Amino acid sequence: MKTLFRSILSVCLGVLAADAYAQNKLMLGYSSLSSNQTPIWVAKEEGFYKRFGVDADLILIEGSTRGAQALISGDLPMIGMAGQAIISARARGSDLVAVAGVVNKMNYIFVGSPSVKSPEDLKGKRIGISQIGTASYHAVVLALKQWRLDSRRDRITILQVGTQAARVASLNSGGCDAIIVNPGLNSAMKQRGYNIIADFSEMPIPYPLQLIGTRERLLKSEPDLAERLVKAYVAGNSFTLDAKNKNRVKAILAKYLRLPNVEAAEEHYQSALAVIPKKPYVDMAGISSMIEFLTESDPNVAKIKPEQVINHAIMKRLDESGFIEHPFGK
């Protein structure tokens, strides 16, 4: 009887697993609450994942380091994440790769309290970031380097505060003297009397701020699923960039950013349009620069080549077939 029961249970589980696979119900990740995630949110809200046969839910995994861990553990098949986490994971033997470039340049503003009006005023001050190793951290390090400031010599403290909302709250309460946030908050910060020390989106610095990360294992074992996920993302990217969809995209931004109304999303929308590429390839120059930057503090990264980090096989197929230009047909 026990043997019969186990056999029946095994068959039932097998049927359920097959049914779940057929529907491709899964979880996808994104690493921040900012307009950098717009195409991913649009792909979900406009039903593009379902259009390509995937029943996907989205989950926020704050910080790309955690996102990399979720990919490595197999908890997620793909996630929108910063490039440095993929590079660092590759340096330690993982098979993480980037299959698309969501944002290939810096998209932050450096905001100072009323007393912090210039880079020089950062001496002896506290700067709020998400966490060490994230894109917000690297933005601060690169900025200090460009301004010829040294955190030790100039007694600058970098604080791990958390989400963008937490950083703003910390600046409001006096817990930080400066923070890194998305340009979508530019007007709101100015209205509160804060100073915009720098707008990184205006600087021609190639930087893998937001990529679509996955594992080579998925690309080899489930190539059809991987391609359908990338197709949905590309459709979301194209929908976002099409001016006639402006109000719908703003509504989606308002929902995910928890804004009071759709009009409050205007600046976030413009921020997204300024950095989202028409053809979402990963920028090789940005990956090369990031490898060079990370090598300064992590010698293991020196052995990594940009070609190991990027897999454009799916993107090239979609491009050559005309899908990127016309994901919804001509």
Q: What this model shows, in words?
A:
The chain is α/β, with parallel strands linked by helices and 330 residues long. The relative contact order is 0.18. It is globular, with a radius of gyration of 21 Å. It has two domains: 218 residues, Periplasmic binding protein-like II (D-Maltodextrin-Binding Protein, domain 2, 3-Layer(aba) Sandwich), CATH 3.40.190; 94 residues, D-Maltodextrin-Binding Protein, domain 2, CATH 3.40.190. 46% of the residues lie in helices and 17% in strands.
How far from one another are the termini? 60 Å
Average of per-residue pLDDT values: 89
CATH superfamily name of the largest domain? Periplasmic binding protein-like II
Number of domains: 2
CATH-derived topology of the largest domain: D-Maltodextrin-Binding Protein, domain 2
Percent of residues in beta strands: 15-25%
Query: What is the strand arrangement across the widest sheet?
Result: 2-1-3-10-4
Coarse structural class: alpha/beta
Gyration radius over CA: 21 Å
Helix content: 40-55%
CATH class of the largest domain: Alpha Beta
Instruction: Give the low-pLDDT segments.
Output: 1-22
Q: What sequence of helices (H) and strands (E) makes up the elements?
A: HEHHEHEHEEEHEHEHEEHHHHHHH
Secondary structure elements and their pairing?
Layout lengths: L1 H22 L1 E6 L7 H8 L2 H4 L3 E6 L3 H10 L5 E3 L1 H9 L4 E10 L3 E4 L13 E4 L5 H12 L10 E4 L3 H10 L4 E4 L4 H6 L3 E5 L6 E10 H6 L1 H19 L4 H11 L9 H10 L8 H12 L10 H4 L3 H8 L10
Parallel strand pairs: 1-2, 1-3, 6-7, 6-8
Antiparallel strand pairs: 3-10, 4-10, 5-8, 5-9
Helix pairs in contact: 2-10, 2-11, 4-5, 5-13
